[in-house]
Amino acid sequence: MSISSEYKPLGKQVTGSLHTLSPIVELNVGGEMYTTTLSTLKKHPGSKLAEMFTGQPKLRTDSEGRFFIDRPGTYFKYILEYLRSNQVPTQCVQDVYREALFYDIEPLIKQLEDSPQIFGELVARKQFLARVPNYSENIELMIRIARAEAVASRQSSIIVCVVRTEEDAARCQDALNSLDTDKKSVVKFGPWKAAPSISDLLDCIQMDVEAKGYKISFQPHVAEKGFRFKSHDFFYKFLFTWW
To answer: What residue stretches are annotated with the BTB domain (predicted)?
Structure first.
């Protein structure tokens, strides 16, 4: 008994036990078609993927009767390769990692977290940024200010103050007060207790803003005359380019 002949209606909820189905399974994952076996999909019993094909089916079918999973199909081939042969992917690692998390395949998750790409992001960069107070909130604040200043403009500029230590924060307080008096928007990052430098944090800011789809660059902020501060030590101008 074939899957395609048994389940034709588009989007119809499958009924009955999967134990009655052929051991060969046809899948439609986000528009990509795959053929595999039930035993492959159920290789890791504790995973969400195994749960989908255990006991009472929880999946709908497409117009050809293939089980439909509403996830990016491009990366499912790497999931299947791992289930079939324990081969850990070396391409599209970040994307496959997200899919492994979704399908809750714990052994693959752990092996991917040991890869240089995921290890560097989770253990090194993310752990550093977790020690920078209000980092994520400040990224969102930068974007809100830039969008508010984008009316009839090609670029939006934002002044960012980056201080690594409490002493640096105290040193630039007068400059912050001066900018506030001039009604200039300043987003302040730091201080933090970790090895990375100010230039490292600036790179992180650019990386995370660009990851949201924005075109951004930065340079030291050149203070106006009468600005009594060596501004390039802590102040930077970020430019959002809109067109």
So the answer is: 23-120
**Beta strands 235-241 and 215-220: pairing type?**
antiparallel
Contacts of residue 135, defined as CB under 8 A and 6 or more positions apart, other chains included, come to 129, 189
Provide the b/e sequence for 193-229 (b: ≥16 CB within 10 Å).
eeebebeebbebbeebbeeeebebebeebebeeebeb
Instruction: Answer for the pair 2, 42: CB distance below 8 angstroms, yes or no.
Output: no
Task: Give per-residue pLDDT as tens, 103-132.
Answer: 999 999 999 999 998 999 888 999 999 999
Residue recorded with tokens 């090194």: 124
Quick one: angle between helices 76-85 and 93-103, nearest 10?
70
pLDDT tens-digit map of 59-100: 889 999 999 999 999 999 999 999 999 999 999 999 999 999
Q: Does the global pTM surpass 0.90?
A: no
Tokens of 123: 């253990």
**Per-residue tokens: 93:** 């690692």
227: left (phi over 0), alpha (psi -120 to 50) or beta: beta
Rounded Cα distance between 191 and 204, Å, is 15
Residues 6+ apart with CB under 8 A from 33: 26, 27, 66
Residue with tokens 């074939």: 2
Are residues 179 and 159 in contact, defined by beta-carbon separation less than 8 angstroms?
Answer: yes
Q: Which are the contacts of 216, defined by CB distance < 8 A and separation ≥ 6? A: 206, 209, 210, 238, 239, 240, 241
Amino acid at residue number 86:
N
Q: Is there a contact between 80 and 74 (Cβ–Cβ < 8 Å)?
A: no
Q: What is the DSSP letter of 118?
A: H
